[in-house]
Amino acid sequence: MKVLFIGGTGNISTPVSEMAVERGVDLYHLNRGNNLPIKGVKSLIADIENTEETRKVLESHEWDVVVNWIAFTPEQVQRDIETFKNKTKQYVFISSASCYEKPPTNPIITESTPLKNPHWQYSRDKIACEDLLVKAFREDNFPMTIVRPSHTYYSVFPLSLGGWTEYNAVDRMKKGLPVVVQGDGTSLWTVTHARDFAKAFLGMMGRKAAIGEAYHITSDEVLTWNQIYEQLAEAAGVKAKIVHITSKNIIDYADQNGFASEEGGLWGDKSHCAIFDNSKIKKLVPEYVATIPYAEGIKETLAWFEADPKRMIINPETTRLLDGLIKKYG
Prior knowledge:
By secondary structure, this protein is an alpha/beta fold. It is built from 12 helices and 15 strands. About 40% of the residues lie in helices and about 15% in strands.
């Protein structure tokens, strides 16, 4: 199977790329060549935003599957439709589970849950991308598949404040300083290791039954936000000192004090319970089982950060935000 990943060296796509090569996929990456290559992956150098440059690089190729890991707007998706029409048997768009209705009517999320997020522009743009692809499939038979990851981690900390590519929360935990968790920390959330995601994703690629369909791919493990922070602290060899602050107070404080808005990430995502019914992807890929519990997977993520001091980024703005929140509300 000849496959093109647009991007391919990110938090989710790196483990997917590595597993694809292990399974014998003829995998190409299209990117600007700024990241270290993954062993076994063939490289095509072009800026996907430069349409003419990209078409020249791709003109001699046809694909079984094209996956765009870095498309976020309808304009980017429309460009892909025009570029890969009649050039691929399957086009996979990486959407987001944050597109699902916020606040949710039902905490159990299926692919039939409405797509509606009034709080986060990122999610609204992803929804618009999905709408465009559905139209292209219905009217022009464009062979699309939509995949919606939810808080998938490998080289990021899946936290609500002080994490992701930042080391702030871990640094505070190790120094005995408090960290902030929204609400009372008991809302239920799902985090998924990227290698687990990869198993289902690779099983979906190249499947005719997946054309025209949308799938989310997550773990079946459900944790409270308190557990997510506590298990990271345990992996770091310490205990988490958690200060609970309402989402509204976090959002208002950030807005009133010149910080980046927290509305999208909280009201538009992490303030609500997120429990996923994975029946649809398991019907397509019966062998899919998520086997990496967060308590184990986060140890690997922590080790990855600490293997290179350059990865242990302390964002001073995040420090200022957390200290200000704790001083005012803690």
